[in-house]
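Dear colleague,

Thank you for sharing your sequence with our group. We've completed the structure prediction you requested, and as agreed, I am returning the results in plain text so they can be pasted directly into your records. Please verify that the sequence below matches your submission; if there's any discrepancy, let me know and we will rerun it promptly.
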Amino acid sequence: MPRLSYIIPIYNTEQYLSRCVGSIYEQGIPECDFEVILVNDGSTDNSYVVAQKIASVHGNIKLYTQENQGQSVARNLGMKHAKGDYLAFIDSDDWLIPHTIRPILEQMENKDLDIISFRLIYQTLKQSNIGSTQPLPKMKVMSGEEALLAGLQLWSVCTSLYSTQMIKEHNLKFVPKILSEDVEFNARAYSYAKRVMFTDYIAYYYFMNSESSTADNDKKKRIRKYSSVIYSTKSIRNIATEIQSSKLKENFIRRANSSIVGFLISLMRNSFNLDVDTRLGMFDNLKQQGLYPIKGDTLSWKTSLLVRLLNCNSLVKAFIR
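Please find the predicted structure tokens below.
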């Protein structure tokens, strides 16, 4: 049984895939201790051919292909076939810094963690910046609830390793056809996690590729982004109803409310350059999902002060128009 399973969805990244997979083999971990699961998500370029060539070189690579259904479905397929004790998620145009995952994996094992988090470097064609630091103590074991209450920021799953047992025990999956699936997934994962730890290890290069599926700026993508925010916010509200801890329940409600405030401000500012009818439709959807008017406070006292103002239906509509 491998110690670690790397799950890599592939969509039209033929020029980056070899770099991505190659970086996994530069971690100082014996090949018998890990597996690489490649899921071709209906690529229309030569990505699948490149993946086949890579898989033919290494005996610990599993290659699957499916019709284009999105990153979430590809990741779910990878998790279904994963045999490792722990899971790592990598996007196919990103890559790992050599010899960084091994010490992270050892910390995961030695401290019997459900989740361990590390940092990444944002890389463009011109520059790089270190990011993804959490406002939490480093190298300290805490519960997922403690981390959430202390201000955990929910973001990419690519900056963490996860216990396969925890994921399977709670049947955690990525929601298809939304753009903020990592936030939704991590909200659930951390609410269940008993032992988590945050580190200052920098292990991951996040390539900000203007041609990638997450960087598309067309109108349909912008509408999907708005819809995804609504879905994730509704999901976080639903998670709150399942939580026994009153403090964590309140935290999730405040997180959802903070998201709604940001959503409304974005709609009124027209941050994504959508027509009036589309934005009014999004506002109506927010109401249909039971997320408006906002009920309760947000994570910040400043945005909490805005709630009464934003709960004025006519005022919001006037700004949208």
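Summary note from our side: Residues 212-216 have pLDDT under 50 and may be disordered.

Kind regards,
the structure core
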